[in-house]
Amino acid sequence: MKQIGLLIALLMCGCNSSHNKTTETVKTKLELDAHTVPSGLLGHPVGTYLTIEGVAGQTKGGIRVLVEAVNGQPLNSEIYIHVNSIYVTQKTRCKIKGYETGVMAGEPPAFTQSGAKSDPKWQRTQLNKWQFWRYFVPMSIDYPEELSKQLTGKENSQQSPAGDDLKAAPEE
Q1: CB neighbours of 106 closer than 8 A, spacing ≥ 6?
Q2: Residues 39, 45: contact at Cβ < 8 Å?
Q3: What residues form DSSP beta bridges with 165?
Q4: Fewer beta carbons below 10 Å: N end or C end of the chain?
């Protein structure tokens, strides 16, 4: 039980991005089975239903959105977040409804602590640093219509959250 509490504390303290510090979004504490839910890059606890507006673009690590507004409130700083289940070839203005979530990704400290050899799969990626990786899961897309059609077509065949998109993503 103490280990779970320590993990949550580490996630909340050690993984806050500089992006969080400049947002003026009111942060709400949520509890899940008596544990505090970590805050997302967008200034709300992960799992909170949000509407993001911004410009989606293709990057080496997948699709990222430069978020300009959350729930209709403009942001004062640049916040980029990876978005699963959509694909764009050029910069595209979008309005997406869904939630932010995350996974632990990269090579765990257990490799160093145990003296074991580093896992070669992490050496081939940019996610070799153990970190809490936040991303956005779209539930519906208001615009553009092309993205909305993509999402509708993938509803029954979504990848697991820790799918291949994370392996090539850049460090944050």
Answers
A1: 122, 127, 128, 129, 130, 131, 133
A2: yes
A3: none
A4: N
4, containing H or E segment: helix 2-14
Which residue has 């280990």 as its token pair? Answer: 3
Please give the structure tokens belonging to residue 2. Answer: 């103490």
Q: How confident is the model at residue 34 (pLDDT cuts 50, 70, 90)?
A: low
What's the CA gap between 143 and 14, in Å, rounded?
35
Beta strand pairing call for 131-143 and 73-83 = parallel
Residue 20 host element (H or E): helix 18-22
Q: What burial class does residue 95 get, using C-beta atoms within 10 Å of its C-beta: 0-12 exposed, 13-18 middle, 19+ buried?
A: middle
Mean pLDDT of 90-115: 88
Chain-centre distance for alpha carbon 43: 12
N-term to C-term CA, the chain: 29
Q: How far apart are CA 59 and CA 19, in angstroms?
A: 19
Instruction: Map residue 14 onto helix, strand or coil.
Output: helix
